[in-house]
Amino acid sequence: MISIDLIEKTAGVLMDKAAIEIPQDYLDGLEGAAEVEDGDLSSFVLQAMLENYKAAKEDRRAMCGDTGCPRWYVKMGNDARIEGGPVALEAALRRATADATNGVPLRPNRVHPLWRTDHNNNVGIGAPEIEYGFEPGGEWIDLITVHKGGLFGTDYRMLFPSDGIEGIKRFYLDSLVAFGKRGLACQPAIIGIGLGGSKDTCMVLGKRAACLRTVGDRNPDPKIAELEDEFKELGNSIGMGAMGFVGKSMVIDCNIEVGYCHTGGMQMSVHAFCLSSRRAVARIHSDGRVEYRTDPEWFTPYQRRETVEWETPQCHEKSA
Question: Tell me, what's a Pfam family for it (predicted)?
Fold first, then answer.
Protein backbone atom coordinates (compact mmCIF):
# COMPACT_ATOMS: atom_id res chain seq x y z
CA MET A 1 0.00 0.00 0.00
CA ILE A 2 1.41 3.39 -1.02
CA SER A 3 0.64 6.11 1.50
CA ILE A 4 -0.99 9.38 0.51
CA ASP A 5 1.45 11.35 2.68
CA LEU A 6 4.36 9.91 0.69
CA ILE A 7 2.64 10.69 -2.60
CA GLU A 8 2.03 14.31 -1.58
CA LYS A 9 5.57 14.75 -0.25
CA THR A 10 7.08 13.28 -3.42
CA ALA A 11 4.83 15.41 -5.61
CA GLY A 12 6.05 18.52 -3.80
CA VAL A 13 9.67 17.60 -4.46
CA LEU A 14 8.85 17.02 -8.15
CA MET A 15 7.22 20.42 -8.50
CA ASP A 16 10.40 22.02 -7.18
CA LYS A 17 12.66 19.96 -9.43
CA ALA A 18 10.64 20.61 -12.58
CA ALA A 19 10.61 24.36 -12.08
CA ILE A 20 14.28 24.69 -11.20
CA GLU A 21 16.38 21.84 -12.62
CA ILE A 22 16.52 21.45 -16.40
CA PRO A 23 16.64 17.77 -17.47
CA GLN A 24 20.13 16.66 -18.47
CA ASP A 25 19.05 15.27 -21.86
CA TYR A 26 17.62 18.63 -22.89
CA LEU A 27 20.61 20.51 -21.45
CA ASP A 28 22.96 18.32 -23.52
CA GLY A 29 20.88 19.04 -26.61
CA LEU A 30 20.87 22.77 -25.92
CA GLU A 31 24.63 22.83 -25.41
CA GLY A 32 25.03 20.97 -28.70
CA ALA A 33 22.88 23.56 -30.46
CA ALA A 34 24.90 26.40 -28.94
CA GLU A 35 28.11 24.90 -30.30
CA VAL A 36 26.92 25.00 -33.93
CA GLU A 37 24.72 28.11 -33.84
CA ASP A 38 26.22 30.98 -35.84
CA GLY A 39 23.37 33.51 -35.75
CA ASP A 40 24.39 36.45 -33.55
CA LEU A 41 21.13 36.92 -31.66
CA SER A 42 20.38 33.19 -31.52
CA SER A 43 23.82 32.51 -30.09
CA PHE A 44 23.32 35.26 -27.52
CA VAL A 45 19.97 33.81 -26.43
CA LEU A 46 21.35 30.28 -26.14
CA GLN A 47 24.30 31.36 -24.03
CA ALA A 48 22.06 33.51 -21.84
CA MET A 49 19.71 30.59 -21.25
CA LEU A 50 22.56 28.23 -20.37
CA GLU A 51 23.83 30.75 -17.83
CA ASN A 52 20.30 31.22 -16.50
CA TYR A 53 19.81 27.48 -16.00
CA LYS A 54 23.02 27.26 -14.03
CA ALA A 55 22.07 30.23 -11.85
CA ALA A 56 18.58 28.86 -11.25
CA LYS A 57 19.92 25.58 -9.94
CA GLU A 58 22.51 27.29 -7.73
CA ASP A 59 20.01 29.81 -6.32
CA ARG A 60 17.09 27.32 -6.18
CA ARG A 61 14.81 29.63 -8.11
CA ALA A 62 12.54 28.94 -11.08
CA MET A 63 14.45 28.87 -14.37
CA CYS A 64 11.83 31.01 -16.15
CA GLY A 65 9.55 33.80 -14.95
CA ASP A 66 6.61 32.14 -16.67
CA THR A 67 6.51 28.79 -14.93
CA GLY A 68 3.91 27.38 -17.31
CA CYS A 69 0.87 25.31 -16.41
CA PRO A 70 1.68 22.39 -14.10
CA ARG A 71 0.15 19.08 -15.16
CA TRP A 72 0.51 15.51 -13.96
CA TYR A 73 0.96 12.16 -15.67
CA VAL A 74 0.45 9.14 -13.42
CA LYS A 75 1.64 5.67 -14.46
CA MET A 76 0.54 2.78 -12.25
CA GLY A 77 1.74 -0.78 -12.08
CA ASN A 78 -1.25 -3.11 -12.25
CA ASP A 79 -0.69 -4.42 -8.71
CA ALA A 80 -0.27 -1.00 -7.07
CA ARG A 81 -2.60 -0.06 -4.23
CA ILE A 82 -3.02 3.50 -3.03
CA GLU A 83 -4.20 4.55 0.40
CA GLY A 84 -7.60 6.15 -0.08
CA GLY A 85 -7.73 5.21 -3.76
CA PRO A 86 -7.63 7.43 -6.87
CA VAL A 87 -9.68 10.24 -5.31
CA ALA A 88 -7.14 10.62 -2.50
CA LEU A 89 -4.33 10.51 -5.06
CA GLU A 90 -5.83 13.36 -7.07
CA ALA A 91 -6.43 15.42 -3.96
CA ALA A 92 -2.76 14.96 -2.98
CA LEU A 93 -1.59 16.13 -6.40
CA ARG A 94 -3.85 19.19 -6.23
CA ARG A 95 -2.54 20.04 -2.75
CA ALA A 96 1.06 19.65 -3.92
CA THR A 97 0.36 21.95 -6.87
CA ALA A 98 -1.19 24.61 -4.67
CA ASP A 99 1.59 24.39 -2.09
CA ALA A 100 4.30 24.62 -4.76
CA THR A 101 2.69 27.70 -6.29
CA ASN A 102 3.31 29.52 -3.03
CA GLY A 103 6.46 27.67 -2.03
CA VAL A 104 8.75 27.38 -5.09
CA PRO A 105 7.16 29.85 -6.02
CA LEU A 106 5.34 29.30 -9.31
CA ARG A 107 3.43 31.97 -11.18
CA PRO A 108 -0.33 31.41 -10.65
CA ASN A 109 -1.28 31.02 -14.31
CA ARG A 110 -4.70 29.38 -14.03
CA VAL A 111 -7.89 31.43 -14.29
CA HIS A 112 -11.53 30.76 -15.22
CA PRO A 113 -11.90 31.24 -19.01
CA LEU A 114 -14.91 33.57 -18.68
CA TRP A 115 -14.88 35.17 -15.23
CA ARG A 116 -11.06 35.20 -14.91
CA THR A 117 -11.40 33.89 -11.37
CA ASP A 118 -7.91 33.26 -9.98
CA HIS A 119 -7.34 31.21 -6.83
CA ASN A 120 -3.61 32.05 -6.95
CA ASN A 121 -2.62 28.40 -6.66
CA ASN A 122 -2.80 26.91 -10.21
CA VAL A 123 -5.79 24.81 -9.11
CA GLY A 124 -9.30 25.10 -10.47
CA ILE A 125 -11.82 23.38 -12.70
CA GLY A 126 -9.83 20.79 -14.67
CA ALA A 127 -6.55 22.17 -13.33
CA PRO A 128 -4.05 20.72 -12.94
CA GLU A 129 -4.63 18.14 -15.64
CA ILE A 130 -4.05 14.56 -14.49
CA GLU A 131 -3.59 11.85 -17.11
CA TYR A 132 -3.15 8.15 -16.47
CA GLY A 133 -1.32 5.16 -17.87
CA PHE A 134 -1.03 1.59 -16.64
CA GLU A 135 1.54 -1.19 -16.94
CA PRO A 136 1.30 -4.96 -16.43
CA GLY A 137 2.52 -6.06 -13.02
CA GLY A 138 4.37 -3.91 -10.52
CA GLU A 139 3.46 -2.44 -7.12
CA TRP A 140 4.59 1.08 -7.91
CA ILE A 141 3.33 4.38 -9.27
CA ASP A 142 5.25 6.87 -11.39
CA LEU A 143 4.49 10.53 -10.79
CA ILE A 144 5.48 12.80 -13.68
CA THR A 145 5.02 16.54 -13.57
CA VAL A 146 5.36 18.71 -16.65
CA HIS A 147 5.19 22.49 -16.49
CA LYS A 148 4.27 23.30 -20.08
CA GLY A 149 3.59 26.73 -21.50
CA GLY A 150 -0.16 27.11 -21.74
CA LEU A 151 -0.78 29.52 -24.60
CA PHE A 152 0.74 28.71 -27.98
CA GLY A 153 3.17 26.33 -29.63
CA THR A 154 0.46 23.90 -30.72
CA ASP A 155 -1.37 23.32 -34.01
CA TYR A 156 -3.63 20.70 -35.59
CA ARG A 157 -4.69 19.81 -39.11
CA MET A 158 -6.85 17.11 -40.62
CA LEU A 159 -4.75 15.61 -43.39
CA PHE A 160 -5.79 12.81 -45.71
CA PRO A 161 -4.00 9.64 -46.80
CA SER A 162 -3.33 11.15 -50.21
CA ASP A 163 -1.32 13.97 -48.57
CA GLY A 164 1.31 11.40 -47.63
CA ILE A 165 4.68 12.18 -46.08
CA GLU A 166 5.01 15.35 -48.16
CA GLY A 167 1.78 16.69 -46.66
CA ILE A 168 3.06 15.92 -43.18
CA LYS A 169 6.26 17.83 -43.95
CA ARG A 170 4.35 20.84 -45.28
CA PHE A 171 2.22 21.15 -42.17
CA TYR A 172 5.24 20.63 -39.95
CA LEU A 173 7.12 23.44 -41.65
CA ASP A 174 4.05 25.69 -41.73
CA SER A 175 3.70 25.24 -37.98
CA LEU A 176 7.36 25.92 -37.18
CA VAL A 177 7.44 29.05 -39.34
CA ALA A 178 4.28 30.33 -37.66
CA PHE A 179 5.68 29.54 -34.21
CA GLY A 180 8.87 31.47 -34.99
CA LYS A 181 7.54 34.46 -36.92
CA ARG A 182 4.56 35.12 -34.68
CA GLY A 183 6.25 34.41 -31.36
CA LEU A 184 4.00 31.45 -30.62
CA ALA A 185 6.65 29.29 -28.95
CA CYS A 186 9.97 29.59 -27.14
CA GLN A 187 12.62 27.93 -29.26
CA PRO A 188 14.72 25.88 -29.43
CA ALA A 189 12.26 23.22 -28.41
CA ILE A 190 11.53 19.54 -28.38
CA ILE A 191 8.88 19.14 -31.07
CA GLY A 192 6.24 16.47 -30.65
CA ILE A 193 4.15 15.23 -33.56
CA GLY A 194 0.99 13.19 -33.19
CA LEU A 195 -0.24 11.25 -36.21
CA GLY A 196 -3.61 9.53 -36.32
CA GLY A 197 -6.11 8.78 -33.63
CA SER A 198 -9.18 10.99 -33.41
CA LYS A 199 -8.74 14.75 -33.04
CA ASP A 200 -8.51 14.65 -29.27
CA THR A 201 -6.18 11.63 -29.09
CA CYS A 202 -4.04 13.10 -31.87
CA MET A 203 -3.50 16.20 -29.75
CA VAL A 204 -2.70 14.05 -26.71
CA LEU A 205 -0.20 11.97 -28.70
CA GLY A 206 1.63 15.06 -29.95
CA LYS A 207 1.82 16.67 -26.52
CA ARG A 208 3.05 13.48 -24.92
CA ALA A 209 5.63 13.07 -27.69
CA ALA A 210 6.95 16.55 -26.88
CA CYS A 211 6.83 16.31 -23.09
CA LEU A 212 7.31 12.64 -22.21
CA ARG A 213 10.20 11.59 -24.44
CA THR A 214 13.83 12.55 -24.02
CA VAL A 215 16.27 14.11 -26.46
CA GLY A 216 17.90 11.38 -28.56
CA ASP A 217 15.17 8.81 -27.93
CA ARG A 218 13.83 7.21 -31.11
CA ASN A 219 10.56 5.52 -32.01
CA PRO A 220 11.00 1.73 -32.18
CA ASP A 221 9.52 1.69 -35.69
CA PRO A 222 12.67 2.21 -37.83
CA LYS A 223 10.79 4.14 -40.53
CA ILE A 224 9.30 6.53 -37.99
CA ALA A 225 12.73 6.86 -36.36
CA GLU A 226 14.13 7.92 -39.76
CA LEU A 227 11.38 10.53 -40.02
CA GLU A 228 12.27 11.87 -36.58
CA ASP A 229 15.89 12.38 -37.67
CA GLU A 230 14.78 13.93 -40.95
CA PHE A 231 12.30 16.27 -39.29
CA LYS A 232 14.87 17.48 -36.77
CA GLU A 233 17.22 18.39 -39.62
CA LEU A 234 14.38 19.88 -41.64
CA GLY A 235 13.23 22.05 -38.75
CA ASN A 236 16.73 23.44 -38.33
CA SER A 237 17.06 24.28 -42.03
CA ILE A 238 14.43 27.04 -42.27
CA GLY A 239 16.71 29.85 -41.10
CA MET A 240 15.27 30.32 -37.62
CA GLY A 241 17.05 29.83 -34.33
CA ALA A 242 16.50 30.66 -30.68
CA MET A 243 13.31 32.65 -30.01
CA GLY A 244 12.68 32.98 -33.74
CA PHE A 245 15.84 34.95 -34.48
CA VAL A 246 17.93 34.15 -37.54
CA GLY A 247 19.80 30.92 -36.94
CA LYS A 248 19.76 27.15 -37.29
CA SER A 249 18.80 25.85 -33.85
CA MET A 250 15.02 25.84 -33.77
CA VAL A 251 14.54 22.15 -32.99
CA ILE A 252 16.44 20.32 -30.25
CA ASP A 253 14.74 17.09 -31.23
CA CYS A 254 11.60 15.81 -32.95
CA ASN A 255 9.53 12.95 -31.55
CA ILE A 256 6.69 11.26 -33.43
CA GLU A 257 3.93 9.09 -31.97
CA VAL A 258 1.13 7.42 -33.92
CA GLY A 259 -2.33 6.03 -33.24
CA TYR A 260 -4.70 4.10 -35.46
CA CYS A 261 -7.21 6.42 -37.15
CA HIS A 262 -10.26 6.43 -39.41
CA THR A 263 -9.59 4.98 -42.84
CA GLY A 264 -10.40 8.28 -44.56
CA GLY A 265 -8.16 10.57 -42.54
CA MET A 266 -4.65 11.25 -41.26
CA GLN A 267 -4.87 13.60 -38.31
CA MET A 268 -1.74 15.51 -37.33
CA SER A 269 -0.79 17.71 -34.40
CA VAL A 270 2.44 19.64 -33.77
CA HIS A 271 3.52 20.66 -30.28
CA ALA A 272 6.54 22.64 -29.14
CA PHE A 273 7.63 22.11 -25.53
CA CYS A 274 9.78 25.17 -24.77
CA LEU A 275 13.37 26.10 -24.07
CA SER A 276 12.70 25.52 -20.39
CA SER A 277 11.73 21.86 -20.75
CA ARG A 278 10.29 21.44 -17.27
CA ARG A 279 9.66 17.84 -16.27
CA ALA A 280 10.51 15.64 -13.31
CA VAL A 281 9.71 12.02 -12.46
CA ALA A 282 9.62 9.78 -9.41
CA ARG A 283 8.73 6.13 -8.91
CA ILE A 284 7.13 5.36 -5.56
CA HIS A 285 7.34 1.71 -4.48
CA SER A 286 4.97 -0.03 -2.13
CA ASP A 287 7.79 -0.46 0.41
CA GLY A 288 8.23 3.33 0.65
CA ARG A 289 11.27 3.70 -1.62
CA VAL A 290 11.27 6.72 -3.94
CA GLU A 291 13.48 6.88 -7.03
CA TYR A 292 13.83 10.21 -8.83
CA ARG A 293 14.71 10.54 -12.51
CA THR A 294 14.06 12.83 -15.49
CA ASP A 295 13.10 10.29 -18.17
CA PRO A 296 9.33 9.68 -17.96
CA GLU A 297 9.71 6.26 -19.70
CA TRP A 298 6.09 6.66 -20.72
CA PHE A 299 6.08 5.07 -24.18
CA THR A 300 6.75 1.47 -23.24
CA PRO A 301 5.91 -1.46 -25.53
CA TYR A 302 2.69 -1.83 -23.57
CA GLN A 303 1.65 1.77 -24.31
CA ARG A 304 2.27 1.16 -28.03
CA ARG A 305 0.59 -2.26 -28.16
CA GLU A 306 -1.41 -3.14 -31.28
CA THR A 307 -2.96 -6.46 -30.27
CA VAL A 308 -6.22 -7.13 -28.46
CA GLU A 309 -4.46 -8.95 -25.65
CA TRP A 310 -1.04 -8.29 -24.15
CA GLU A 311 1.02 -11.17 -25.49
CA THR A 312 4.70 -10.36 -24.94
CA PRO A 313 6.05 -11.81 -21.67
CA GLN A 314 9.51 -10.22 -22.15
CA CYS A 315 7.98 -6.74 -22.25
CA HIS A 316 5.75 -7.65 -19.32
CA GLU A 317 8.79 -8.47 -17.22
CA LYS A 318 10.57 -5.27 -18.27
CA SER A 319 7.55 -3.12 -17.39
CA ALA A 320 7.19 -4.77 -13.98
Answer: Fumerase
